[in-house]
């Protein structure tokens, strides 16, 4: 998976913005809340995203996956190489992380970005 593929995938979701934070992390946000962080400062490229609390431990037991630094208590995992997951799993994980974050937004904000009718 290439960073450009992740950008394209994220930009298809309603209300998504991207920015560089901390000088080297490409962050994808919905209503200013991060749902995917791609580390641009290392090779191979790493990424962090939110998962269900039920799948957190299972994900962290996979080779190359660890609890995301500073975010593990919120059930975020980090993968050390984007290529550890195929495109289809990336699509599922990005969408799930987005849904988990967007689902916690206030109804008014969800409506503003087109998630509520």
From TrEMBL:
GO terms for molecular function: DNA binding. Gene3D superfamilies: 3.90.1150.30. InterPro entries: YjbR, YjbR-like_sf, YjbR/MT2646/Rv2570-like. The keyword Metal-binding does not apply. Keywords: DNA-binding. SUPFAM superfamilies: YjbR-like. The keyword Nucleotide-binding does not apply. This is Predicted DNA-binding protein, MmcQ/YjbR family. It comes from Pontibacter chinhatensis. The lineage of its organism: Bacteria, Pseudomonadati, Bacteroidota, Cytophagia, Cytophagales.
